[in-house]
Amino acid sequence: MENATMTGQELFDHKIENDLKIEPKDWMPDDYRKHLQRQMSQHAHSEIIGMQPEGNWILRAPSLRAKVILLAKVQDEAGHGQYLYSAAETLGKTRDEFIEELQSGKAKYSSIFNYPTLSWADMGAVGWLVDGAAIVNQVSLQRTSYGPYSRAMVKICKEESFHQRQGYEIMAHMARGTEEQKAMAQDALNRFWWPSIMMFGPHDGDSPRTGNAMMWKIKRETNDDLRQQFIDKTVGQAELIGLTIPDPDLKWNEERGSYDFGEMDWDHFWDVVKGNGPCNKQRIKHHIDAHENGSWVRKAANAYAEKNG
Ligand code: 3HC
Questions:
Q1: Which residues, 6 or more positions from 73, have their beta carbon under 8 angstroms from its beta carbon?
Q2: Ligand 1 atom 11 nearest Cα
Q3: How far apart are CA 303 and CA 229, in angstroms?
Q4: Which tens digits make up the pLDDT trace of 9-43?
Q5: Is there an atom of ligand 1 within 6 Å of 136 CB?
Q6: Which residues, other chains included, contact 120 with Cβ-Cβ below 8 Å and sequence gap of 6+?
Q7: Exposure on the CB side of residue 3, measured as CA atoms within 13 A
Q8: What is the distance between the alpha carbons of residues 150 and 84, in angstroms, rounded to a whole number?
Q9: pTM of the full predicted structure?
Q10: From the alpha carbon of 202, which atom of ligand 1 is closest?
Q11: Which atom of ligand 1 is found nearest the CA of 207?
């Protein structure tokens, strides 16, 4: 029961313990605030950078229907990014500061977006696997302890299921198509499977952030738990459309009621996270160019806002 005699820390601990949301005006430990500023801004960066690999195919979509669907999805991601930047700004840092951290390389974004999208089937693999993984992660984050982040996740999750379904529809369509189309879909699955399961982050034992994240109920499930959930729900989807998960160690474990799977290449993962992936430099350069070319829009909008109050 909250009472007026509680210190800031006691009230914070009481709210965390009782699954009550921490709100922007509440007292919070500096480390809790910094942890959220880092995770939420990097989440927002991921949404915005994630627009590039898919935006690459809007002009090359195979039909008007496909183009309209992809356009809608990429626009959604922009909205998710803006939503998350706004939620992150409630913690006392500005969007400009977050953008500077991204463009200078100080801040991270999801490694998955540093891979090229080489064929239309990649649009299917990204929607099905990347958004599929994001759904598992973001459904869990709906229960995060920070109010604005939790509410942002509720809104974003409503749109993610469309993202995953449209990707799976592309894969199913191609897997039922010509031999060449099926081969394209399998090739996309081969290239995106391992980077997608590594989206969930390092193993729990190698995750420096998970301890605090779980203590403060920022994370409600660990990296490995969420990864396992994603794999367990996705393997059957691949089998249903006749595609093969590129993991020779993948095997149903009756005792665990889950799939056993092979070890991920963490040296490669950290190399990509450190900036040496196939597209890291191109993604940041594109972001800087777009940000600079769009500065007149920000200036005009700010001038209008100042003039009209
Ligand atoms: N890519 C890049 N960096 C990663 C990473 C990945 N896939 N996984 C982990 N890292 C980084 C972490 O950011 C951390 O570095 P930092 O301390 O400098 O930030 C370090 O590796 C150690 O990882 P931890 O697991 O200890 O860190 P976290 O507890 O923060 O867990 C996370 C990482 C699971 C990504 C967590 O931050 C999270 O859940 N973030 C919110 C969700 C998110 O950002 N998803 C990214 C994709 S968004 C997306 O796909 C949108 C969709 O619409 C397409």
A1: 54, 127, 162, 163, 166
A2: 201
A3: 48
A4: 999 999 999 999 999 999 999 999 999 999 999 99
A5: no
A6: 57, 60, 61, 62, 66, 170, 174, 184
A7: 2
A8: 10
A9: 0.97
A10: 25
A11: 26
